[in-house]
Specification:
Layout lengths: L9 E10 L3 E10 L6 E10 L12 H7 L3
Amino acid sequence: RLTACFDDKLIVETRVVDLARVSVRFGYRIVRDAPGEELVCEGDTRLACVGNDLRPRRFPPDVAALLKGR
């Protein structure tokens, strides 16, 4: 969308877009910290909760509550 330079002041907005039993998707927006907050870019990542054996595991209840904003 737009370029950003080294000295630019940017705001990174992060939110939980989707929360499933073993995965969460975060959405990101990066905007310029200026009047009008110009959108620089946006994207998302999906992360999985896994155990020591690297197999998918449900989020622990306390982690799921934090991700739900409770």
